[in-house]
Amino acid sequence: DSPVTLKILQNWVPRVSPYFDKEHYTYVGHQIVIQESIEHFGAVVWPGALALSQYLESNQEQFNLKDKKVLEIGAGTGLVSIVACILGAYVTATDLPEVLENLSYNISRNTQNMNMHKPEVRKLVWGEDLNEDFPVSTYHYDFLLATDVVYHHTALDPLLATMVYFCKPGTVLLWANKFRFSTDYEFLEKLCDIFNVTILAEFPESNVKLLKA
C-alpha cells in the first residue's frame, strides 16, 4: 500500500514564552498539557511526536494499544507516551537522565486520577547496559515507539542497536521522523536492511515520515 499523505493537525494553542513553555494539546478527547524546556533537545515537542500521536488516535483499529506493552525510546516531553496511556497501553517511557525530571512531571500530571495503567519512566541510554537494565528474559514489548530520534548526532549506531535489541518476534516498531539530512536517509537504509519497513504516512509540509518495521 502507498503511504497516506496527511497534515499535522493544529489541535493545540501555541503559547509564546522564551523559557519553560507549556503547550496544550487535545488527543483522544483529553487535554494534555506539556511543559517544555529549551535547555534540552529532548524537552521540546518535535513534529514527529505530533504526527505519531495523531496517527495512533486516528488508527486505533489498526494499532490497538489497549493492554499492550509499549516502550518509547527518546520519549522527550512524553506526549506520545501519554497518548499511548490514554489508549490503554502499559507504557514505559525512557530517555537520558537529564530529561527524566521533565518527562516524569509531564507524564504524572497528565495521567494521574485517570482510569489507565500507571506508566513507568526509566533511564535508557541507547546501546548501553541494555541486557542489565532490560533483560530479554523479563522484558518483551508489543510496540516500540520512537519520534524524531534520528537527526545530526553521533549516537545513530547505538540507536539502531537499541531498536534491534527491543524488537523481538511480534514487536512492531513505529518510528516518526522529520527527514532533514542525508544521515537520516542513511539510517533508514540501515533499518531497511534489518527490518521489513513500510511507510505508513507522510506529512509533506513538515517533512515527516511515519514508518512501521
From TrEMBL:
One GO term of the biological process aspect: methylation
GO molecular function: methyltransferase activity
Cited Pfam families: Methyltransf_16
UniProt-listed InterPro entries: Methyltransf_16, SAM-dependent_MTases_sf
Keyword terms, alphabetized: Methyltransferase, S-adenosyl-L-methionine, Transferase
Record flagged with keyword S-adenosyl-L-methionine: yes
Name of the protein in question: Protein-lysine methyltransferase METTL21C
Taxonomic source organism: Tauraco erythrolophus (Red-crested turaco)
